[in-house]
Design a protein that fits this description.
- The structure is a single chain.
- This protein has 386 residues and is an all-alpha fold.
- It folds into 2 domains: 130 residues, Cyclin-like (Cyclin A, domain 1); 163 residues, Orthogonal Bundle (Cyclin A, domain 1).
- Helix content is 44%, strand content 0%.
- It is built from 15 helices and no strands.
- Helix 11 crosses helix 12.
- About 19% of the residues have low confidence.
């Protein structure tokens, strides 16, 4: 299978950059394509993993092709269409195009041409060849829940930290982190960021060994803080930009936000802006959604209803324990009414059987007659003397 992780120098030498598109514009195109996939999938009721798989396909596709050659919104619909089939949540191509047409402006929808369905179906074959039929994609979500269940601490603070980290994973799809690091490292980095912002300090965890200096050493060893902080900086760069954009799916007419380049963890940058100092400055801007039932379901926590006092929780618990069998009433079986006897079925008699004369009768046949045996051979004559 191909390796889908690239160095930063490769991310700055993509086909789009070679085709005359600057790095800031390409970053904006990637962000808009990822947001368009998420918006379309959300309106169609798709799962988060299906949308994340489509976004990963989108980023991988443009490591081999240029945005000038393939319009991003057509590619986004194609990636979501393929991801739905891979993740076993298929949607019809015409339904995806219908939702896309509602999200895009008329000028943006002109990218699909006269026959939008044929455009997406044709691009699907190119997409499969580009990603080399490597369809299975792992995401940080599963690792995030796995790591969180091994941590010890106050349950409410842990839940808040996991919710914040889950939101960061969603937002990281707008970056190229999926092209730089494995999902395990992304999950650890964003949990590290969420723990810093939520003031949740992890001091103990399940399965701790003396050689484990930090909690993530139990899962992935030899991860430096520079790598984690650089990953966090790339996510925080999203919150440093203005949310409005000119070429958004909603068609807003605002000044484009300048995308920040991929940061490199150097001593000067770390000492200049400082990770902890930037967190303190960014905390008022980072707003995390309060409702994410899939996180509560995975963690087995009953989410509080938004707008109610903290003492009141949701009336329906996320965890559904199976009650014991004694809780169900035993209903005695009822006697069925007797079935009245019926007269036996009368069938017409069968016709008399006639002998099938396949061959003529042999009345005078006495048995097999074999030809007479040949006479015994005489011994050969003696050789004639010369």
């Amino acid at each position: 299978m191909p390796c889908w992780y690239y160095e930063k120098k490769d991310l700055k030498n993509t086909p789009s950059l070679q085709d005359g598109i600057d790095f800031e514009t390409e970053s904006r195109y990637r962000k808009e394509g990822a947001r368009f996939i998420i918006d379309t999938g959300t309106k169609m009721g798709l799962r988060y993993d299906t949308m994340a798989t489509g976004v990963v396909y989108f980023h991988r596709f443009y490591m081999f092709h240029s945005f000038k050659e393939f319009p991003r919104y057509v590619t986004a619909c194609c990636c979501l269409f393929l991801a739905g089939k891979v993740e076993e949540t298929p949607k019809k191509c015409k339904d995806i195009i219908k939702v896309a047409k509602a999200l895009l402006s008329d000028a943006q929808f002109q990218q699909f041409g006269e026959d939008a369905k044929e455009e997406v179906m044709t691009l699907e074959r190119i997409l499969l060849q580009t990603i080399r039929f490597d369809l299975q994609v792992e995401h940080p979500y599963g690792y995030l829940i796995k790591y969180a269940k091994s941590l010890k601490g106050e349950k409410s603070k842990l839940q808040k930290m996991v919710q914040m980290a889950w939101t960061f994973v969603n937002d990281s799809l707008c970056t190229t982190l999926c092209l730089q690091w494995e999902p395990e490292i992304i999950a650890i980095a964003l949990m590290y960021l969420a723990g810093k912002l939520s003031k949740f300090e992890i001091t103990d965890w399940i399965g701790r060994q003396p050689r484990h200096l930090r909690w993530w050493d139990m899962f992935v060893e030899d991860i430096s803080l520079e790598i984690l902080e650089d990953t966090c900086h790339q996510v925080l760069d999203l919150y440093s930009q203005q949310p409005s954009r000119t070429d958004s799916p909603q068609g807003l007419n605002a000044a484009p936000a300048k995308a920040l380049p991929i940061s490199t963890p150097t001593k000067a940058s770390v000492a200049g802006r400082g990770f902890d100092q930037r967190l303190d400055a960014m905390q008022p801007k980072v707003e995390v959604s309060a409702s994410a039932n899939y996180v509560n379901y995975a963690m087995g926590v009953t989410p509080p209803v938004v707008g109610l006092p903290p003492s009141i929780v949701a009336p329906i618990s996320v965890a559904h324990p199976i009650p014991p069998w004694s809780a169900y009433p035993i209903i005695p079986p009822t006697a069925n009414p007797p079935i009245p006897p019926t007269a036996p079925q009368a069938y017409p008699p069968l016709p008399p059987s006639q002998p099938a004369a396949f061959y003529a009768p042999y009345t005078n046949f006495t048995g097999q007659v074999y030809p007479p045996a040949p006479p015994a051979q005489q011994p050969p004559p003696p050789p004639r003397p010369y």
